[in-house]
Amino acid sequence: MAGMCQLLRCGDLIHVIRVVCQKCKKNRKYGVFFVFALTTGISFGYFMSTHRLSDERIMRNKEITHLLEMLPVLSTTEESCGEIFSNNTEAIKRARNTIINESIDLLAITNNCQEFKGRRGYVTETISSVEEDFPLAYSILMYKDPEQVERLLRAIYRPHNIHCIHVDASSEERTNAIMLAISNCLDNVFLASKPINVQWGSFSVVDAELLCMKQLLQRSRKWKYLINLTGQEFPLKTNLDIVRILKVMNGSNMVSASTQPLDVTRWRSHLPAPGNVSLHKGSTHALLTRAFVQYLLYNKTAKDFARWLRKTNFPDESLVPSLNHSPQLQVPGAYTGVPKTGVDGYRFIARFKIWYRACNGKLVRNVCVFGVGDLPKMPRSHHLFANKFYFNLEPMTLRCLEELHYNKTREDITGAGFSRLNMTFYNNLPNIKRHIPSGLETSDEGRTRKTS
Ligand SMILES: *[C@@H]1O[C@H](CO)[C@@H](O)[C@H](O)[C@H]1NC(C)=O
Ligand SMILES: *[C@@H]1O[C@H](CO)[C@@H](O)[C@H](O)[C@H]1NC(C)=O
Ligand SMILES: *[C@@H]1O[C@H](CO)[C@@H](O)[C@H](O)[C@H]1NC(C)=O
Ligand SMILES: *[C@@H]1O[C@H](CO)[C@@H](O)[C@H](O)[C@H]1NC(C)=O
Ligand SMILES: *[C@@H]1O[C@H](CO)[C@@H](O)[C@H](O)[C@H]1NC(C)=O
Ligand SMILES: *[C@@H]1O[C@H](CO)[C@@H](O)[C@H](O)[C@H]1NC(C)=O
Ligand SMILES: *[C@@H]1O[C@H](CO)[C@@H](O)[C@H](O)[C@H]1NC(C)=O
Ligand SMILES: *[C@@H]1O[C@H](CO)[C@@H](O)[C@H](O)[C@H]1NC(C)=O
């Protein structure tokens, strides 16, 4: 009886074979037929399973090939960007003087939108469901160099994201015409209506931002985070990287601010500020949750504070940093820890930017405009975007960053991109735990369930 139980546990098949073998001792023909039937069955099963598998593989390979074909083909030069990124002094020296003769008549090629998207290499299809399920909104403030902005747009563009371009009211007619033509070719790219004449350092910067924010909210209910850029920036991470990092941020904003209001003269003569807001000065680069953007645009406390800031100097550096560091106001996504930008404190990942220090390009108003020699610092940086670039200053700088960017996008398509980032750094950002909820949080339970 015990032997029989064991047999059953080993599987019905062995049991059947036993029974049959007992029978074959009595009848040989019966046994031969059984062995024949068994081998045929197994072979057929094996054939079916491998056939189906390779069918799937062929489908997947076809899809990968098709997606890879979308990406831009960059003009080749003698310079090797790989060597430049690995800090080869000779390669860097050569690349500094390289002129790239690649004139694209954007007005002409946007006459045919299909051709424009194809020839320029826009990613018009979804690469991964991770990205599709986490749509982003972008605003780009610009006033010149439409060819440079188009290359930024090409790098960040995804069919499931939404992009607002604020072309300054004082821009040349040609700039406006090119950006309008581009936006007419891409459904989810639009120009801010009623653009503003932006004066840097005045409230008009904020007005332009608010304009894009409002129109982005109206046009899409889906996006989860807003990233605001200027036309002179470029991504250091692919869309997949950015989505994976923002998901880890757990519904918090990323805004830098200093602990001490360093420049009290900016607002001293107008104190007190309304609404019990704690005044802070910070960087103008931010990653903002949708709920924060809604608060900024429509909450009375935020609107009163913004109106008061109009009287002060550099309000664009005070508005978002102050609201994001006033936990008493319960602003969605706001930081509840001590605001401090530094190595061991709050880590600001929105921008790679060099102030005052060693710059291999050119310092303009104390900010480094990057040159080829700055490239080796970028691939290992934790930052999402780099600021800033001039189209005509050492053009190989942007050209090599583009090459790196599309190499990584290629990895995203084949699936290799998922293991590129060291997520440990991002998982330990202090704002992940210390913030006011904004509705995008993943419960700890949900997080383990998803990653398992
Ligand atoms: C750039 O290339 C075009 C032809 O493609 C040529 O006519 C022009 O002279 C070149 N310009 C420079 C600066 O080399
Ligand atoms: C104003 O904010 C401070 C923290 O900065 C808080 O201690 C205080 O209770 C707030 N006052 C009111 C009236 O909310
Ligand atoms: C990003 O948006 C904030 C909030 O409106 C604004 O203060 C800042 O100037 C913007 N930054 C850029 C680069 O436009
Ligand atoms: C606006 O913000 C204030 C301060 O954060 C908050 O007390 C109030 O409930 C908000 N109003 C609305 C309508 O959400
Ligand atoms: C590149 O090399 C230079 C000198 O050859 C060195 O000063 C610099 O730190 C290096 N940069 C990186 C990112 O390794
Ligand atoms: C991009 O990929 C190509 C082909 O694998 C390689 O030759 C090139 O060095 C890569 N460029 C960079 C910047 O990594
Ligand atoms: C990932 O980053 C953490 C800290 O940011 C570091 O300790 C760890 O060694 C890194 N892992 C790899 C594989 O580079
Ligand atoms: C995400 O934020 C929520 C609410 O602020 C918090 O309860 C949760 O622990 C956070 N998740 C992680 C992984 O820190």
Automatic annotation (TrEMBL):
One family name in Pfam for this protein: Branch
Keyword Transmembrane helix appears in the UniProt entry: yes
Main location: membrane
One GO cellular component term: membrane
Highest taxon, organism lineage: Eukaryota
Topological relation to the membrane, as annotated: Single-pass type II membrane protein
Keywords on record: Glycoprotein, Glycosyltransferase, Membrane, Signal-anchor, Transferase, Transmembrane, Transmembrane helix
Bilayer-spanning residue ranges: 30-48
Transmembrane helix recorded as keyword: yes
Localization in the cell: Membrane
The protein's name in its UniProt record: Uncharacterized protein
Organism this protein belongs to: Paralvinella palmiformis
Gene Ontology molecular-function annotations: acetylglucosaminyltransferase activity
Pathway stated in the Swiss-Prot or TrEMBL entry: Protein modification; protein glycosylation
InterPro entries: Glyco_trans_14
Protein family (similarity comment): Belongs to the glycosyltransferase 14 family.
